[in-house]
């Protein structure tokens, strides 16, 4: 049996934009609800959400029943010894696409790619567990490297300074521009749509596309999502589960209870 093809990676390489939703509620129950909505991908957040390996596994199992929706997982850290270990564990759970926060240099990006590849292309420890269907995918060790998709996050001025080199790293499939951390790094905390931040993001998109890689972004602002899709965004998160729940519950309460203020529902990453 062939190792499953990664449809998200295939779509990025074919320059087909993929629309997704960020998930931070750490629940298989809500993950299944989101999986049935029709998004191309769902991101399970292991950096800012209260997820561990078991909760990630439960969400992967819930999403697996919806073959048209691809599961992505973000690790808390992706380079250094801790990052290498976490990436091995996430990949062994069956995650085919990983998002790595705070990648500032090409050296860090290369280390991430190495951690996601079996030898001789990398240093991922041999195993696979659930990823290889407990050995039932008999060629998993030889086929897995081609199906792992590596997305790195550029979230600082340092990362922007090194962006051309980061995007040029072989094995990096896409670069996600983290608007919240980037706005803070550029001196405009909480203002991802500030003109300076916006100009930096648009320039980054152009450079990522020039390198032949996929630019990514996240915002619950529909106008901004469409703007970055028009600028060539290929994996764009258009909402967050917690944000949706916060906004819509507050709006519902406000319609029935005088004095309740509708909520903006938090921000973005």
Topology, pairings included?
Layout: H1 7-13, E1 18-23, H2 28-35, E2 41-45, H3 53-64, E3 70-74, H4 80-92, E4 97-100, H5 106-115, H6 140-147, E5 149-154, H7 157-161, H8 163-167, E6 174-177, H9 179-185, H10 195-210, E7 214-218, H11 222-230, E8 235-240, H12 241-256
Helix pairs in contact: 2-3, 4-5
- Level-2 CATH architecture: Alpha-Beta Barrel
CATH classification class: Alpha Beta
The third-level CATH topology is TIM Barrel
The spatial strand order of the largest sheet comes to: 1-2-3-4-5-6-7-8
How many angstroms separate the termini? 38 Å
Number of domains: 1
Q: What's the total helix number?
A: 12
Percentage of residues in DSSP E strands: 15-25%
- Mean pLDDT score: 95
Q: Give the biggest sheet.
A: 8 strands, parallel, barrel
**Which regions have little confidence, pLDDT < 50, spanning 5+ residues?**
none
Computed Rg: 18 Å
Number of β-strand runs: 8
Helix-strand category: alpha/beta
Based on CA inertia axes, which overall geometry fits?
globular
By CATH, the superfamily comes out as Phosphoenolpyruvate-binding domains
What is the helix content?
A: 40-55%
- Order of helix and strand elements from N to C terminus: HEHEHEHEHHEHHEHHEHEH
What do these coordinates show?
- Strand 2 (41-45), helix 3 and strand 3 (70-74) form a beta-alpha-beta unit.
- The mean pLDDT is 95.
- The chain has 12 helices and 8 strands.
- It has helices at 7-13, 28-35, 53-64, 80-92, 106-115, 140-147, 157-161, 163-167, 179-185, 195-210, 222-230, 241-256; strands at 18-23, 41-45, 70-74, 97-100, 149-154, 174-177, 214-218, 235-240.
- The protein is globular.
- It is α/β, with parallel strands linked by helices.
- The protein is 43% helix and 15% strand.
């Amino acid at each position: 049996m062939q190792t499953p093809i990664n449809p998200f990676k295939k779509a990025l390489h074919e320059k087909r934009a993929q629309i997704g939703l960020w998930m931070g509620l750490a629940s298989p129950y809500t993950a299944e609800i989101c999986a049935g909505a029709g998004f191309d991908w769902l991101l399970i957040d292991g950096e800012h959400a209260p997820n561990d390996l078991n909760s990630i596994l439960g969400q992967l199992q819930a999403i697996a029943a919806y073959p048209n929706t691809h599961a992505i997982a973000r690790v808390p850290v992706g380079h250094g010894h801790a990052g290498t270990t976490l990436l091995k564990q996430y990949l062994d759970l069956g995650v085919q696409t990983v998002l790595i926060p705070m990648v500032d240099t090409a050296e860090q990006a290369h280390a991430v790619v190495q951690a996601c590849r079996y030898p001789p292309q990398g240093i991922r420890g041999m195993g696979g567990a659930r990823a290889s269907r407990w050995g039932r995918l008999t060629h998993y060790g030889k086929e897995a490297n081609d199906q792992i998709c590596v997305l790195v996050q550029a979230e600082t001025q340092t990362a922007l300074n090194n962006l051309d080199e980061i995007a040029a790293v072989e094995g990096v499939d896409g670069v996600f521009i983290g608007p919240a951390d980037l706005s803070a790094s550029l001196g405009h905390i909480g203002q991802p749509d500030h003109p300076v931040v916006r100009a930096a993001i648009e320039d980054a998109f152009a450079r990522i596309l020039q390198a032949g890689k996929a630019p990514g972004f996240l915002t619950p602002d529909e106008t901004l999502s469409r703007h970055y899709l028009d600028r060539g965004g290929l994996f764009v998160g258009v909402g967050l589960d917690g944000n949706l729940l916060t906004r819509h519950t507050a709006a519902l309460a406000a319609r029935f209870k005088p004095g309740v203020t509708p909520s903006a529902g938090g921000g973005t990453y």
